């Protein structure tokens, strides 16, 4: 029995004869101290993953988006945003430079941009795979056949956050799709053999601890290979621009609980945490995180991929992060 199962069984036996998973998670959120939960998560992270950190270079290659999510700065109705699309040649060039620097995974991320259909993007994936790196995609909802085309081209992983499992909240915040559709896409990705990642935003207006417990339970039900958890950061050019930032310590506690439930998953210290404070991003590595994704998008585009303010303040070079983690006793991969 690993530490995650031991902790869960111990907690259940001392609190109630029979808990649902959601109830167990809610008890952890409400009744167990931050220090207890994060200490256990860090112990599990060390047991399963050791003291290694995966560095993954992210290229944000288009900020066009057909969707109108209420929380996102690149939503289609943000008329104040200058839009860009990198060319195939630009994307491959940046990926090549990142691979030469030492990155072993390239993450291609964009808004849901119809220009970048599966056929066009698959050409880029094939070129990047020649660099002997893994390729992660984060380009939103596609059809099963489109996911299959990209998988056939060599894509290894796919990130698609569901943001919230609360159907009413999801419908309000993401008017262009449904929660059922989102979950179906994640199941398709698993079926096609992708390492599948998803995640949530903590502190969305209208969210509750009960809905957050359901979010964590859904991540466990999906048996995600990757789980990303970041705080809500309001963007002034969105309908949610007047709301407060999500609670960062609740974010870290949820990260820790998710690590306990998904001991083998890769979990990033999200850019959103780093945007609020570099110290918070590093603290995530003591709450269960084992991945960081430096942004290597060219400077002329980087600040235009503004899903929330302050997103691109952190350093992006492989050598910088290698030294940061060396100084805290971690080894990068």
What does this protein structure show overall?
The chain has 333 residues and is of the alpha/beta class. The chain has a single domain, classed as Aldolase class I (TIM Barrel), CATH 3.20.20.70. Helix content is 45%, strand content 13%. It is built from 14 helices and 9 strands. The strands form 2 sheets. The protein has a 6-stranded parallel beta sheet with strand order 2-3-4-5-6-7. Strand 3 (105-110), helix 5 and strand 4 (134-138) form a beta-alpha-beta unit. Helix 2 packs across helix 9 and helix 9 packs parallel to helix 10 (248-261). It is globular, with a radius of gyration of 19 Å. The two termini are 28 Å apart. Mean pLDDT is 94; it is low at 14-18.
Low-confidence stretches: 14-18
In spatial order, strands of the major sheet run: 2-3-4-5-6-7
Strand content: 5-15%
CATH architectural type: Alpha-Beta Barrel
Question: Count of helices?
Answer: 14
Overall average residue pLDDT: 94
By CATH reckoning, the class would read Alpha Beta
GO biological process, one term: sulfur compound biosynthetic process
Organism: Thermodesulfovibrio yellowstonii
Binding site for (3R)-3-methyl-D-ornithine: 138
InterPro entries: Aldolase_TIM, BATS_dom, Elp3/MiaA/NifB-like_rSAM, FeFe-hyd_HydE_rSAM, HydE/PylB-like, rSAM, rSAM_sf
